[in-house]
Amino acid sequence: MRVVIAEDSVLLRVGVQRLLADEGIETVAAVENGDDLLDAVTEHRPDLCVVDVRMPPTFTDEGLRAAIECRRRYPGLPVLVLSQYVEERYAVELLAGGASGVGYLLKERVADVKEFVDAVRRVADGGTSIDHEVITQLMVRSKKSPVDKLTPREREVLGLMAQGLSNTAIAGTLVVSDGAVEKHVGNIFAKLGLEPSNSEHRRVRAVLAYLDS
Questions:
Q1: Cα–Cα distance, 81 to 94 (Å, whole number)
Q2: Domain containing 162 — which CATH number?
Q3: Name one GO molecular function term (predicted).
């Protein structure tokens, strides 16, 4: 796997690069601003971008804007966003461009090497990985939406789906059977008005509806 890192903090940038190297993941470029990220993606066409939300010069949303532009130029480019805080609208905006191959993690998760590397590989493979804290805060601000139709357990299942977990992994987390999870997932799809499909696309659409609720 070939990765481009965009992070203005030298310590975190080098730390992530070394962490990935220990897992056999090559960093082809490590930059500190959005413009250099765009140039690096154009030059290297990486398998994944790991991007900080706030970078120079204004330290507001330069990283995210650059990531969205990268995905506009190269549709399907996997992007894993790292943020110090929960930036709710950023998560939704990134997913609005297509929820396949996107992640949003708080920087503190980098300290959990296994969790971070799992997220890197999942997003690079076209999946999603949304931080639980982001999901929790989005649920708090949720008002009228199709998600309101879900039971507490169905919301819990959908939240775990948003983190990128498979049905089997969800069953293990909730200590229930695979069949129970499949039933909950079916109910979620029905209540959100998602038509039957054999692809994973419905899961992505369900997650997007959840985050945008």
A1: 9
A2: 1.10.10.10
A3: DNA binding
